Amino acid sequence: MLTDDPDPATAVAEWQVWSTKARVVVTDPAALGEARRLVADQLAAVDAAASRFRDDSELSRIARAGGSPRLVSPLLAELVAVALHAAESTDGDVDPTLGDLLATLGYDRDIALIRHDGCAPGPTTDDGLDGPAASAPPRSTVRRGPAWRRIVLDGEWLTVPPGVQLDLGATAKAHTADRCAALVAERLGVGVLVSLGGDLATAGDAPPGGWRVRAQDRPGEPASTVTLAPGAALATSSTIGRRWLREGRVLHHVLDPRTCRPADPVWRTVTVAARSCLAANTASTASVVRGIAATGWLHALGLPARLVRRDKSVLTLTGWPADEPVAPLAARPFPAAAARQAEPAVTDRERRQAATSMSRGGRP
């Protein structure tokens, strides 16, 4: 997700971090160097606190604590707090206690290292998303209870049950985008857009006409360009980005905590707009887990969203502008708080799938 043809008055810095791209756009070119430094420092601090791929991170030390309370940094306490809030607000769909399960499934190091280790998927039909291989884990996987309810955070004292490894990836990245944007705007007095992969936050004054943003997971995927008002945020969750091969099966990193399997890729990607990147990411991740049931949930929340189906057709909800069939896409106003609209149209098959999920005790 990138700014599309940025205003000439803005300045842009990009660099690789966390196997993705960090992008900072400021409305005053003179502030770009300092803005980049502020963001890079924040990213380094979050990595030292919350990376599950670093043996020396605070998060890794907590995993070795054997269930004993540990005093943690204010930053890690903040990141755990927002992760627990995301779990509570989504009825556990966004679960921060899946680190050990992800490692068991093969995501035990930075995704770039997995690919370079010869584990990248080989040629598959439609990126490997058409068959059961996309969602089936190794046969040894078993069901588990909601361990996140047993995590205790008392101020800066953190207790994680023995055998539980936290993975704060989704919420930590989104919350960091929010923190970075707010910090740059406050310290430097400029308008700023911060994008960390698919997580994008803005703060301060926007360029004339707003922040023009192109939503597209990767080349060849459906694209949409919208204009964000100052302070708006977007997040995209994907089943086609972070993938790897395990026992001949293509897996992705968004797990359904109730099945311990990568979520059924009903959606290739889900993009959500909200007033914070954290809120947008919480909704987009939960929507991937919920599958077709996500459409009614997002509508009830009143969140503008764009969902790309398995066959690359696009469903837009609650004020997200309809995609245009030609490029370049025209920028259009993007409402900061969209009004509730009529229920989005879904296919008969999707209605039956949602009804079946509900009859079996699925999430609303």
The rough form would be described as globular
Strand order of the largest sheet: 2-3-7-8-11-16-17-18
Figure out the total of helices: 9
- Return the average pLDDT rounded to an integer: 77
Unreliable stretches (pLDDT < 50, length at least 5) are 116-143, 324-346, 354-364
* CATH architecture term: Roll
Work out the strand percent. 15-25%
How do you describe this structure in short?
This protein is of the alpha+beta class. Helices cover about 30% and strands about 20% of the residues. It has a single domain (about 1-55, about 65-360), classed as Roll (T-fold).
Explain how this protein is built.
- With 364 residues, the chain is α+β, with helices and mostly antiparallel strands.
- It has one domain: ApbE-like domains (T-fold, Roll).
- The protein is built from nine helices and 18 strands.
- Strands 2-3-7-8-11-16-17-18 form an eight-stranded antiparallel sheet.
- Strand 2 and strand 3 form a beta hairpin.
- Helix 7 packs antiparallel against helix 8.
- The two termini are 29 Å apart.
- The relative contact order is 0.14.
- The C terminus is likely disordered.
List keywords for this structure.
18 strands, T-fold, alpha+beta, eight-stranded antiparallel sheet, single chain, 9 helices
Topology of helices and strands:
Layout: E1 2-3, E2 11-17, E3 20-26, H1 32-50, H2 58-63, E4 70-71, H3 74-89, H4 99-104, H5 111-119, E5 152-154, E6 157-159, H6 169-188, E7 192-196, E8 199-203, E9 211-215, E10 224-228, E11 233-238, E12 243-246, E13 249-252, E14 255-256, E15 261-262, E16 267-274, H7 277-290, H8 294-301, E17 305-309, E18 314-317, H9 348-359
Helix pairs in contact: 1-6, 6-7, 7-8
